[in-house]
Amino acid sequence: MRLNLINIQTVFISMFTLFTSCELDLSPVDEITDDKAFVTIEDLEKGRVGVMAYYGGFAIVGVTDYASDDLRYSSSNRGQGVNVHDWTYNASTDDMGSVWDGNAHLVDAANRILEISAQFDPEDATVKKTIAECLFTRAFGHFEVLRAYAPNYSANAIGIPYMKQSVISEPARLTQGEVYQNILSDIDAAIPDLDQFVDGNYWVTQSAAYALKARVAQYMGDWDMAIEAADLAISTGGFRLAEIDEVQQIWNDEVADDVEVIFRKEILSSRLGDYYTASSNQDIYFHPSHSLMDFYEDDDIRKSEYFGKNDNGQDVVKKHDGRASGSMNVVDIKYFRVSEMVLIKAEAYINKDLLDEAQAEIELLRSKRITDPDPIDMSIKSLAMSVLQAERRRELAYEGHRFIDLRRWNLGIERVDEDVPSGRQKVLESGDYRFVFPIPQDEIFANGNMKQNEGYSN
Amino acid sequence: MKRVIHLLLLLFIMGGGIINAQNKTITGIMTDATDGAPIPGATVVVKGTTVGTITMFDGSYSLNVPENAEILVFSFVGMKSQEIAIVNQSVINVVMETESLGVEEVVVTAYGTKGKVGLKGAISVVEAKDMEQVPVASFDQMLQGKTTGLQISTGSGQPGSSNTTVRIRGNGSIMGGNDPLYVVDGVPIEAGAFASLNANDFETVSVLKDASSTAIYGSRAANGVILITTKRGKEGKTKVNIRHQSGVSMKTQERFDMMNTAEKLWFEEIAQKGPGWELSSLNPNYQSLSNEARAAQDAELARLRGINTNWQDQVFRMGKTHSTEANFMGGSEKTQFYVSFQNYYQEGLSPRSDINRYTGRINLDHKISDKIKVGIITSMGTSAANKIESEGGVALQNPFAAVYLANPWEEPYTTAGDINSGKYLFANPYLTDEQNAERYYEYDNVGSNSLDQMANSTNMVEEIKFVGAANLEWTITPDLSAKTQYGIDYRQTLTEREIRPEAYSARILGDDEPGREGQRSQSFGRRMEANFTNTLDYKKVIGDKHLLSAVVGTEYVNRTTFGFGFTGYGLDPKLPGSLQGMTSGTPGTVNTESNYFIPAVSGGESERALFSVFSLVNYTFNDKYTFSGSLRRDGSSAFGADNKYATLYSLGLTWDVTRESFMTDLTWVNNLKFRISYGLTGNQDGLDDYETLTTWGTTQYNNQKGTVLGRSGDPTLKWEIAKKFNVGFDYNLLANRLSGSLDVYNDITDDLFVVQTFSSWAGIPGNAKKTNAGKVRNRGIELLLNYDVIKNNDFIWSVGTNLSYNDNEVLDLGQVNEFEQGTSIIREGLPLGSHYMVKWAGVNPANGNALYYTKGGQVTENYSADDNIAEFGSSNPPFTGGFNTRVSYKGIELSAQFNFAQGYSRFNNQSFFQENPSFAQYNMSTAMLDVWQQPGDVTEIQGVHSTRQFSSKDIEDASFIRFRNLMLSYSLPKTILKRTGIVQGLKVYGQAQNLFTWTKWTGFDPEDSNNIASFEYPTPRVFSVGIDVAF
Questions:
Q1: Taking a C-beta distance cutoff of 8 angstroms, is the pair B17, B11 a contact?
Q2: How do residues A422-438 score in pLDDT, each as one tens digit?
Q3: pLDDT for position B590
Q4: Angle at B616 between CA B614 and CA B621, to 5 degrees
Q5: DSSP string covering B275-303, please?
Q6: Cβ–Cβ gap A112/B762 under 8 Å
Q7: Phi then psi dihedrals of residue B341, to 5 deg
Q8: Mind telling me which residue stretches traverse the membrane in this protein (chain B) (predicted)?
Q9: Which CATH number characterizes residue B181's domain?
Q10: Which of A20, A53, A202 is nearest residue B708 as measured by Cβ atoms?
């Protein structure tokens, strides 16, 4: 009996201790745990690819278009973008928050991979390239937020947070001077280790970085930097403007790699064009505005490439309606194009009172878009500026520039009557607070240090 | 002492020892069913005579009986008397069972040897007889209204549906899950998956409610525990039971009416929508029509008027139910068995809605030696269920929505006899296409399209479920035993869904839609939970006054889930139901378009483990005071690395008041026990298996593989905690005729999961994580009462009731004070499930506009969600319970059971559709006949011009009393049965389920598993008859 008891005790004591610790550390099969995700350089490479997956950019196009004078409300609209179009948005309007949220996540994705890169050999080419791309991405993401959520450039004006690491925090808004400084220093740090040219422009290159720098300089009004960066953006990759007969190919994603498109994201299933016309049932949410359609000369290739008609003869936005074959509205999003660089240079020259140089740039662009362009008059600065503004509107329509450009130029919006069906709004005065997007309510709620933009209540 | 009394008694009965007559000697042994021990000093008497004896020290007896003696009566104090027919037997061994008068404590065992170390505390037990042959496929529904503290509501009448919520003492968790833990014979089983279990196999169902009874289950016990034991074999002659039941299911009556054709066409005119308006002579377009065109239009309107489809006849049916079962129970001294087999078939109220189930069980107990016992329980079930389209959804394919929303002027079948799927569109032959297009719009044939979808699609779930365990018990010393058990709960499902290419819903799809030529989806799921427990238990009487019992043990639980599935497209019309019917997908190239038939595949797996060490100690002093305590330490793979182990405990005291000397004079008090307990239990349901880990997933960009952040885990996440306090009494009074219990409790659940949101710049997917920060209180009172109004040999009338009141309040939500959840709000100070809505203020008689109250109480015509208020109660009933009564006279028994839920309200989302002119293309409730039409109309239905909004008008009192079950049975007298020689028992019965419901609710069923009525599958009324034969 005694022996039995001892045996029993032994058995039970061993059972008590049998499973204690190791069995409770289970790892998922369908997910990669933190410790296993980045072990080799190849893993880091996958992290770099993963950052690209975070690139968005649809919202800044769609939402700023809704708010601009380039679209006309459609009777088949069931509420899509109406708050934005009527400028009745506030901090809780979902459409206004996605630029903020999407780009903040893009920035964080880049920061995470930057931190992981630090575990690898800093001299390794892949590591260097990964770091460079992430720095670019960080600058790009911050600048997208800055464009939409900060007022016009002024070094001491309120900016946005600038995240240099992935951390759970409640970041406060820096001054714009600090934000721009950070953006530029990230771009400059990135450039040396970026690829010069990549097939398809689907990845970050030096050209993309210069293009971003040119755009940043344009917003800052640093015109020398803008010209220099724009030139480098074009020359580094050996890019040129599309010819008239190539314009259609740009929007069908068929154009040669060195033509027009400096940086884009490959899109396989999401639908940028759904902002204007629903691919599911062809319901039109917004037509192109008459004021924009009437703004082109008849022999302007852009008129037939940007606008079209549906089966019922209604006007539709055609620019992002999809490739030649494949699903409707599925098309790459282009972040930087050569024509934007040309227009940045033209705007810089005007501001530097180099009107002839400006005119040369604009005429170059017009010659690649219009069979027989009308003459333009840029003899004095104010005329030159309105020519530039008109051409920028024509060329870059539906690419997320118009609404922000109007603010940059201190202009307001006055929609023409035929673009204003009953019940819709017509005028947004220049300088109105609504030209600056509201900081999303969710951010204000979760971040005690976040300050709302002027004019919006919380 | 007992024995002496017995002996004296016997002598008395026998009138001083006229032990008479030879003829025949019968011998045997009398043993105790609980431990098999011999019973000395018990009485054996020939019925109706004074011939008898008492058993010897070893339980044996020997009795000479007259030749004509028929029945022996065996009796012993505290045991059930037995009458056994002699029929040519000379050896009659008798196993005596403890007489259950309510005084005897039912020992509910969590771990260890059955009956040895019992759980103390607030436990209510539902006996097998209350659950047998209830014609529902899922056992949780059988518990409705049966006992206190247990609230069960069913959201679907689909046979075998798992859409039932089971709550023990209210909702303690906000987002962590509120299902109790279910344990069958020591094996934890999956909540809400009972369709393939046969509840007729269950012996008892114990509902454990307070800390003292549940804390031994540690971090899984916060929502209470439901312990089930299944039937075991008994030594003796093999008993065979054959049972059959057949019945029909019928729809209950909804408390609203839909319009007929005349009413609907009239309303369409008022609403200026639909053919009733387009074809009306009041329509301004009518004036511009030619005479021929008018005639054609009038003729069409007349044709529609001539149709009056009753969609209920098209959709509902009377469903059949059959259940057939055989079970065998018996065994020898060494081996006992219980074997059962059942087929259960039940049809629902709609075609293509049924369940067909086969279940089998083998329970075996075997003594290897005096000290070592092995046992096996196995239950295997397989069920195949056909389900309707879009069950419980606000969707036109849901037949229980279409039946109300289909227009009465729609014909279900064409003249050729085909289903009239498609759209209604009138074309006036005297108008051009363009003119027709301007005047007449098309409308979905809602009813026919639903019939079409039901006819041309399938939705089937096949399930295999196995619950089994093997155990070994070793009685090391009379006081100490060890037990080891390995158990498995296994379930696999195969789901099959096909939409035929002929289906209207497929035919209308565009050329780039994969489903345009039909689609077939199949998915396989498997869930397996293994558990391994090892326990030592000890029970010893020390001296005269001390009883110590304890169990210590370990438990390891491992759960894996696995599944995969696919959807294929382009079905061959000639190969219905075949995997060969799918077309392979071709991707597009630069020059060719994809056929869009590329199949979609999916799959995944997950695992979690739990390891625990636990102990339970009971100490009783002088039979009066019992102290019980439990302690458990749970380590779970799902807990965060910083909080890997939960330590949970309970303390309790039971005081047997009746044993106090001051009670001896109160003879009407047979039993009075006072209980008090406090303890901590946990809830780990809210944690996903890998939620505390930061993980990465894969993506693809530009033909390269990428890695992206999948989840930002929080290593501090842990179990939710419940602090439970309970005080109660168990009582038996008036010669045990009045019995029951009374409990008061205060449960505070803390560290509840709530969502914490983060700045977008933190990059956390969804900007939110769960965190342990919420706090909820449930406090309440429960009364259980059974009373035998009349109790004599032939006639028994008993009544019983169980009443539960639960007060629920959110105490803390962490980062916020409130958050909205659909049409409800979770707000500190309010109960969970509080409705949050704009308050309805009626209709302005002057202009027909809807009126609402602002937050400040002003009446306004402007609807704004900013005016939502939370003054409309909660969707969780505070007051629930049941009543039952049973009358039996000789073999006839009549019983009735009612249950109720009181003081709660639900959001009737159906009336938003049925009473809304914006949906006038669908049929409307007759309530809309009262629509405001002209100034001065006083009505609750706003004018058609005024937009219908969600408001408090749609929140209705859902309190109800339901006549749940009525049963009449007749058991043939033993004297008749005896003549047959084989049949031991025969019972015939008829019963009705869900007979009647008293409620103010205007939907179809006030009872639901959630807060919103959305065209759910109504619970049917079931009538059935059955027969039980025992051999």
A1: yes
A2: 889 999 999 999 999 99
A3: 64
A4: 160
A5: HHHHT-TTSGGGGGS-HHHHHHHHHHHHH
A6: no
A7: -145, 135
A8: none
A9: 2.170.130.10
A10: A53
The whole-model pTM stands at 0.86
Q: What is the CATH number of the domain that holds B19?
A: 2.60.40.1120
Q: What dihedral angle (degrees, nearest 10) is formed by the CA atoms of B1004, B1010, B1012, B1016?
A: -40
> Taking CB atoms and an 8 Å limit, are A33 and B637 in contact across chains?
no
Q: Are residues B21 and B135 in the same domain?
A: no
The per-residue pLDDT for B813 is: 94
Residue of A30, A46, A447 with shortest CB distance to B759: A447
With 70 as the cut, is the pLDDT of residue A1 above it? no
Taking the C-alpha atoms of residue B971 and residue A21, their distance in angstroms, rounded to an integer, is 58
Cα A211 to Cα A179, B835, B1021: the distances in Å are: 18, 54, 73
DSSP-based three-state secondary structure for A123: coil
How close A272 comes to chain B (CA, Å)? 17
- B36 & B136 share domain: no
Q: Domain range holding B26?
A: 2-96
Mutate to test the interface with A, among B533, B761, B813, B864 (most CBs of A within 10 A): B761
At B11, the pLDDT band (50, 70, 90 cuts) reads very low
- How many A-B residue pairs are in contact by the CB < 8 A criterion? 178
Measure CB to CB from residue A105 to each of B534, B608, B763 and give the nearest one: B763
Kindly state whether residue B156 falls inside one of the protein's structural domains. Answer: yes
Give the mean model confidence (pLDDT) for residues B283-289. Answer: 92
Helix (H) or strand (E) holding B169: none
One-letter amino acid at B1027 equals I
Is B193 a domain residue? Answer: yes
Q: Which residue of A has its CA nearest to B614?
A: A16
Q: Choose among B476, B693, B706: nearest Cβ to A8.
A: B476
* Binary contact (B591, A37; C-beta < 8 A): no
Q: Regarding the domain delimited by A41-290+303-446, which CATH topology (the fold level of the hierarchy) does it fall under?
A: 1.25.40
B708 in Cβ contact with B698 (< 8 Å): yes
Selected for mutation to probe chain B from A3, A6, A9, A12 (highest B CB count within 10 Å) is A12
Percent share of chain B, pLDDT over 90: 75
Q: Does one domain contain both B67 and B178?
A: no
C-alpha distance from A343 to closest chain B C-alpha (Å): 30
Task: For residue A269, give the chain B residue with the closest CA.
Answer: B701
pLDDT in tens, B702-743: 999 999 999 999 999 999 999 999 999 999 998 889 999 999
The neighbouring-strand residues paired with B669 are B733
Query: CA–CA separation, B979 vs B973, rounded Å?
Result: 11
CA distance linking residue B852 with residue B866, whole number of Å:
12
Question: Which tokens hold the place of B165?
Answer: 């919520």
Report, as an integer, the average pLDDT of B894-911: 95
Look at chain B and report how many structural domains it folds into: 2
Name every residue whose Cβ is closer than 8 Å to that of residue B590 and which is 6 or more positions away in sequence: A325
| Residue appearing with tokens 């019972």 | B987
Single residue among B214, B245, B276 that ends a domain in this structure: B245
Q: What residues in A contact B560, CB-CB < 8 Å?
A: none
The whole-angstrom separation of Cα B84 and Cα B71 is 5
Q: Give which of A3, A14, A34 to mutate to test B binding, by max B Cβ within 10 Å.
A: A34
Q: Is residue B38 part of a domain?
A: yes
Supply A231's token pair: 């030139």
Phi (first) and psi of residue B556, to 5 degrees: -120, 125
Q: How long a stretch of residues is chain B?
A: 1031
Yes or no: say if A163 and A103 are a contact pair by the CB < 8 Å rule.
Answer: no
Q: How far is CA A5 from CA B478, B481, B482, in A?
A: 13, 11, 11
Q: Which residue has the tokens 């499973």?
A: A19
Structure tokens at A111: 């920061």
For β-strands B1021-1030 and B960-971, DSSP reports them as unpaired
Residue A387: in which H helix or E strand, if any?
helix A381-395
**Helices vs strands, H then E, count in chain A:** 18, 9
